[in-house]
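Newbie here. two chains, one complex. Structure please?
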Amino acid sequence: MRGKCGLFFESYRAEAAVFQSGFQKTCLGLFVAALLLSPWVLDSYAVSMLNLICIAVIGAVSLSLLTGVCGQISLGHGAFLGVGAYAAAQATMHGVPFLAALLLGGFSAALAGMVFGVPSLRLKGIYLAIATLAAQLILEYVFLHWESATGGSRGLIVDAPQILGFSFNNERRMFYLLLVAAALSLLMVTNVLRTRHGRAFVSIRDFYLSAEIAGVNLFAYKLAAFGLSSFLAGVAGGLWAHYTLFLSAEQFGISLSISYLAMIIIGGLGSITGSVMGAVFMTLLPEVLNGLSGSISSVLPDISQHINALREGVFGLVLMLFLIFEPEGLANRWRLIKAYWKLYPFAH
Amino acid sequence: MEYYLQLFINGLVVGSIYSLVALGFVVIYKATKVVNFAQGEMVMVGAYVCFGLTVQLHVPFIWAFLMTLGFSVLLGLAVERLALRPLIGEAHICVIMVTIGLSSVLKSVVQLIWGTQIKVYPEVLPTTPIIIAGMPVAPVYIAAFALSGVLFAVFTVFFKYSRMGIAMRATAHDQQAAQSMGIGIRGIFALSWCIASVVSTVGGVILGNINGINSHLGVLGLKVFPAVILGGLDSLLGAALGGLIIGVLENVCDGLAKDLFDLGGFREVAAFVVLVAILMIKPYGLFGTEEIERV
């Protein structure tokens, strides 16, 4: 850190930069280096957690773009993820190369998202939430009953991804693939936010009428937000399919949509860092609970029967507590902590 | 044809329960503008509490029913005070998410206490079917339909003529104006949650008598959305009619889909397909207040 106690921009370019200080760049560099080394240090269970986090990060960031930045509530994100997953899985099964299949999954999810996003022109707030809820349930039904494409209730077995003959067939290899995908998605969303589109999204969220008066075409931009967000969700779905290697309709139920919404709320609405934190938090929460229940099972032997119910209850409770006591989310808490230490010990 | 008539009657019964749950939903939405995703779980909690009292504690059904109503009043009060009041004035999505969180918590509590197995209520009404227009109908169906009708009548009168009901309508119309007229907004909010909780419980107990209950009863809460959107989010009459129409529609569509396309389980989505259509054509429903915005 330099001598200044704050960031002072002397040009618009500097203000709009993704990384605003050298200190930030150094920290991020160290963090990425640690991540790159981590699969060689951690055991495969921990790496599998990191993999799930990477997928969750892509999904959460994409939803953050739609709900946090553009203000369009979507309760159907899990289903859009599912569309991407099934499309990508079907594509690789028919011999399409993995990366192309991933893009195909993204585009089909974008299409689905835009179709169900059309009502967003007329609907706002809760009406849109209910419309996307309908999208979720209808798509779920399609997943379950379009047996030739999705395998119905039997599920669908997917092969491990291959790029140019290199097979990503273990946790460690998969980690690098997912890390690159997550980093690219984060970079993409961060950059979208700095463009005309990003500013238009924010203006629609803040007040749609002033946005329209300022020359933002509401319909086009809302549709773009739905498309972009579902595209990323579809990519996350494609990666999910090729990581878990098995797809079933239940995976993309409404609880998935809700858990993504929970991620961006717990992280902090509209903040990219926040959605990453939320994704980490929500992925680790059930694992921590599992661990806890394992350690107290000697005291309460029948706790393992109730673990599912308990997990759901804790999820709901955490969500409610965050909304009531920390409505700005983890990102804001992190900002406060940083501000505290910046001037330590002379904070006033 | 007889098959479809049977479906129609089933639809009416299921629909009358949807109407009850939708009534609770609309009362909350009207007074507080909160969209309650935990309505289905409130139905479930009511049904399980009544089950626990009658079967596990051997309380006579009538007393158990009354005690359950008392419990649901407390539940409504607690939910409003602990979960919703801190969020007054927050964004839509936060309020929606807090009710979703609430639904998870309620579901988990029910599962922890009663498990996930299906539970069967004791026989309260005789099982010999009554013949109506040549069709055998179980008495419990008729009781369900009648009870829903009575509750609707009661609430219509309540909102139209009682002091409290008029205060609630005033609050729904304009909170600030109501407040300046000396209406306690907090009391109104609490009351609306109590009413919603009580009618959901009644719905749950009826449902328990028809089908038995399991821990997935909460899904019912989602079925309410098509009903309230069709009727209009803030209309009691709309909730009643919407519930009935959706109940009939999903049963008949299910039968049609089975006959014509050999498609199973269409019941689950039929209502939502209708919902999307309504939202596209007439988002404020049959009787809802249109929000007209001018710049």
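Moderator note: Strands of chain A lie at 156-157, 162-163, 166-167, 246-247. The first helix of chain A runs from residue 12 to 16. Thread marked as resolved.
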